[in-house]
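FORM 12-B: Structure-to-Sequence Request
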């Protein structure tokens, strides 16, 4: 097995026995989660209309994996914000929210 780090988020794996190559994308989500927690705890309200509040910061590697597991293509992921809303509404992803109130799903 050959393994080489390509950049901060990519690792190339090659198995000579099976002649298979895989590029693994990795990410350290801890800084995002810590910043989100801090922002959530420091929340002092928002715009009265609740239309212009930041509701989350999402790690792209985690979001891509979430979409992939649901059969959502990369193109669909970027072109349909409903998937991002569904991601943020998922209780398992609550740590990616930065706003204590919640927004309406379309």
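FORM 12-B RESPONSE
SEQUENCE OUT:
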């Amino acid at each position: 097995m050959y393994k080489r780090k390509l950049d901060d988020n990519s690792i190339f794996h090659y198995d000579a026995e099976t002649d298979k190559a895989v590029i693994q994308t990795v990410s350290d989500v801890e800084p995002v989660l810590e910043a989100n927690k801090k922002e959530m705890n420091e929340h002092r309200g928002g715009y009265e209309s609740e239309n212009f509040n930041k509701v989350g910061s999402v790690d792209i590697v985690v979001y891509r994996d979430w979409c992939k597991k649901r059969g959502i293509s990369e193109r669909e992921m970027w072109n349909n914000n409903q998937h991002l809303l569904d991601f943020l509404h998922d209780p398992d992803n609550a740590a990616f929210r930065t706003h204590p109130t919640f927004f309406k799903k379309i």
